[in-house]
Specification:
With 173 residues, the chain is mainly α. Helix content is 77%, strand content 0%. It has helices at 3-6, 17-30, 41-62, 64-74, 84-89, 92-111, 114-141, 144-172. Helix 3 (41-62) packs across helix 4 (64-74), helix 4 packs antiparallel against helix 8 (144-172) and helix 7 (114-141) packs antiparallel against helix 8 (144-172).
Length: 173
Amino acid sequence: MNYFELLKLPTSVDIDLKAAEQRHRELSLQYHPDRQPPGDLRARREAADTSARLNDAIRTVRDPIRRAVYLLKLQGVDLESESNAVRQAATPQLLEEIMSFREALDLVREIKSVARIESTLKAANDRRQRAQETAFAALRIGDTALATQALVEVRYWSRLAEETESAIEEMTT
């Protein structure tokens, strides 16, 4: 049973977060190990396992990127693996663009311009947002290849944004 089925949600990138949280609360109460018969160790162990799975499920569906990555996994594409499909999703153009951004970030670090680094951060976040929107649109129409490519882009832009935030922190402390 996948996380969406476990939480009785539609298997979709678009979910009702309030309903997901409510369903998680209800099921967590139902499957809490302390609510099982005290002498039934098997029931308590199964409840603990179900409770842990429910917590994993809500963490996944609550986060839009994790949810999208999980949806791809359900379609046979595991972005956590180093499969050819995942490696090929990082196009030469994307890798070139990321390298250019990193070089620019290094130059800006040298001149210690917080304003320029903040501009780089905004650009990286904008690119990440566009890639995320592309991934979600692709998942809505069932285009696994495009969703994979877009989520790989999200991952690269997210890392670049994190590096940029670290650079800002280094300069301002």
